[in-house]
Amino acid sequence: MQVLGIESSCDETGVALVDAAGAGVPRLRAAALYSQIDMHQAYGGVVPELASRDHIRRVLPLAREVLAQADAQIEDIDVVAFTRGPGLAGALLVGAGVACALAAALDKPTLGVHHLEGHLLSPFLSADPPDFPFIALLVSGGHTQLMRVDDVGRYEMLGETIDDAAGEAFDKSAKLMGLGYPGGPALARLAEMGNADAFELPRPLLHSGNLDFSFAGLKTAVMTQLKRRGNVCEQDLADLAASTQQAIVDVLTKKSLAALKQTGLTRLVVAGGVGANRHLREQLDAQCAKRGVRVHYPELHLCTDNGAMIAMAAALRLQRGRATAQRDYAFDVKPRWSLDQI
Ligand code: KG4
Ligand code: ZN
User: pTM surpassing 0.70?
Assistant: First the structure.
């Protein structure tokens, strides 16, 4: 079964082809990605209308590129999968519309995929995929969630953010520091040169006794520090970046360990853009190693949005009978959609 996956929920257009033959883990045959970061950079953030227009320009050339890379013909595609939500409505509609038109023309079915399920299952694209059950720490630009994952499609929400996501905390703090967009990688780079103990920043809900997160206060604390200092030198900024990153990483690590302890599970999957953060990986690896916990990450380039994770999530669901591909082509998108509602 050849599954073409299309991702267009935000500022990356991704297309990929996955082969799900037999019962083994589906195999990625080819993938192509176009990032709109350069275009949005001028505006300091994602401009939804521009994102939609650019997805339209990119998606078909990327699909052609994927088929050529895989040495496959368009008729070889058995299912066309697309990101149904959550995300920007107009951007999602581009992927959904193109997927359904393509499938209708080929007389093949479609499958709408939850974007976060794509992130969650993205470690199955690596050479060493995790076994079920595991705890998943989902840390993307808009979501911060801890889930118990018993199988494909069997997800239990253990905790989530009550305000900003970890990615937002990175992005908003970076913006306050004048680091541009996307802020996460820029802040992480600057933090390499800073002292993480230089600023005392809050670690919200660290001792709340539950698995929920709150990061909005951190951004406010960063703003207060910047105002208090007035003119900040390069080193101050690097110190503030390191201290901010440390606060976020501390909370994510502590809550992940608490989720593992609470459930007795010994595997952790970290997915979503913030999962690319080197400092987070180092701290989680060190803490989990002490407790005999295996940590799985997607490959670095698959942490942020891509088509491969959408094709993989669709292939895994279909292979395990956890979804039925549709032939009515009456697509809709779900800009707001909770992972435990699927
Ligand atoms: O999963 P993703 O690509 O998009 C969403 O589904 O939201 O995540 C994007 C988020 C952004 O907030 C970005 O700043 C953050 O991931 N990010 C990072 C790093 N790379 C991406 N945050 C911290 N350190 C990084 N290296
Ligand atoms: Zn994402």
Answer: yes
